[in-house]
Prior knowledge:
By secondary structure, the protein is an alpha/beta fold. Strands 6-5-4-3-2-1-18 form a 7-stranded mixed beta sheet. A 7-stranded mixed beta sheet has the order 7-8-9-14-15-16-17. The mean pLDDT is about 95. β8 and β9 (about 145-150) form a beta hairpin. The chain has helices at about 40-50, 65-70, 70-80, 95-105, 160-165, 170-180, 210-215, 230-240, 245-255, 270-280; strands at about 5-10, 25-30, 30-35, 60, 90-95, 115-120, 125-130, 130-140, 145-150, 155-160, 180, 185, 190-195, 200, 220-225, 255-260, 285-290, 295.
Amino acid sequence: MSVRELVVLGTASQVPTRHRNHNGYLLRWDGEGLLFDPGEGTQRQMLRAGVAAHDLHRICVTHFHGDHSLGLAGVIQRINLDRVPHEVTVHYPGSGQRFFDRLRYATAYRETVELTEAPVEVEGVLATAPSYTLETRRLSHPVESFGYRLVEPDGRRILPERLAERGIRGPDVGRLQREGSLHGVSLDDVSEVRRGQRFAFVMDTRPCEGVGALAEGCDLLVIESTFLDEDEQLAMDHGHLTAGQAGRVAVEAGVRHLVLTHFSQRYSEPEEFERQARAAGFDGELTVAHDLVRVPVPKRR
Length: 301
């Protein structure tokens, strides 16, 4: 059975706290695992969450600030120590190549795994797999930053009542699906489009065009909300979003499930982030993330 869920490994911005590890987010998407922004301590959080190095197929780094990338060295070495049998691809801003090189070879270790470097230079499609397309958009932060988006291809949903109307049953249903038509009946006649699922990961950024493009129509949106609304100017100065701004993004983009994360250590009341996102008009599912929480991708519409 396919599994699609987000495993939150860490939720703190800038510095870890007693209750929040640095960033780290694993998306399980069918048989693949995509690790986003592995901050310091990610390897230990993976252990606590029951995530193995063998579960990783892609690593996606939004930008090279420490809370989003210092865990990369340990994760890469663990992948090699455990001799992961498949290729692992790492996506990261190309302008930060020198930082990636330092992290990849921070200490001596034996390389046993095919690790593919895939620096991001421009917006657009990064990779295409059977069950998703991985895309990126540029964000607005003091250093170059990219957000990521997964889009599942649209499929078809068979409508039993239309099959019955046309007398198609048993093995003929499978033949119709494989061949596209049968006895003058097309697949379009007995089915409808099943919209593919969408996921987006938006970290450190001011409001910008890329945020909306990434979030558009998402079933699950993971987005930073570093500050509360009363500190909006501070958020703008440092290249971040507030809880209310994240809520408005979700409303305008038609997001189904909103995950707020990357909280400044200055705040001690996490429920206030939800209150402000709700006040911005978001009425869908909402999770104020905490370390080790699991969030399922919503079922298809």
